[in-house]
Amino acid sequence: MTFWQWGYALAADMVLAAIPAVGFAMVFNVPVRALKYCAMAGALGHGCRFVLMQQGMPIEWASFFAALLVGMIGIIGSRRLLAPPHVFTVAAVIPMVPGVYAFKTMIALVDLNQHGFSPEIWQRMAENGITAAFTVAALAIGLAMPGLMFYRRRPVI
């Protein structure tokens, strides 16, 4: 893949991630002045995950670091607009939810129900289910960590 193809793929990924981030922000009644921060956080987070996955990092770890970046952007945006960080971050993380893995897990479950037990189907279901679960957990932990780091009041002993 050439530099220009890679750059085009990254730009397309970021633009296509900003659209659902803004859409979910509108569903959650985010103020209009904050929509650009939701779009920026969604695009940068998904772009970060894209770059890390292109470098060979597994989707779980790439999602964790991307959610960490989105959490940091949310804290910066919250201080700028005097709003809670979740206004920006929740809508920005939703495009990174692993829907394909969850869908493949459900299809494998249906196959198990229709065809009976098969080690191949069971393995496919387990792999996709574990990947989906760990990716969602990575998104949640990565999104929560910046808030825990910056808003912790009591000293660490």
Structure explained in plain terms:
The chain is mainly α and 157 residues long. The protein has one domain (3-150). The protein is 80% helix and 0% strand. It is built from 6 helices and no strands. The protein has helices spanning 3-27, 35-54, 59-81, 86-93, 99-115, 119-150. Helix 2 (35-54) runs antiparallel to helix 3 and helix 2 packs across helix 4 (86-93). The radius of gyration is 18 Å and the shape is globular.
Helix-strand blueprint:
Blueprint: H1 3-27, H2 35-54, H3 59-81, H4 86-93, H5 99-115, H6 119-150
The number of distinct helices, counting runs of at least 4 residues, comes to 6
Number of beta-strand segments: 0
Helix-and-strand structural type: mainly alpha
Beta-strand percentage range: under 5%
Number of domain units? 1
The helicity comes to over 70%
CA-CA gap between termini = 50 Å
Main sheet properties: none
Shape: globular
Average pLDDT works out at: 90
Q: Rg from C-alpha positions?
A: 18 Å
Instruction: Point out poorly predicted stretches.
Output: none
What string, H for helix and E for strand, traces the elements in order? HHHHHH
Family: Belongs to the ThrE exporter (TC 2.A.79) family.
Subcellular location: Cell membrane
Domain Threonine/Serine exporter ThrE: 13-148
Main location: membrane
Keywords:
single chain; 157 residues; mainly alpha; 80% helix; globular; transmembrane; ThrE_Dicarb/AminoAcid_Exp; transmembrane helix; Threonine/Serine exporter ThrE domain-containing protein; ThrE_2
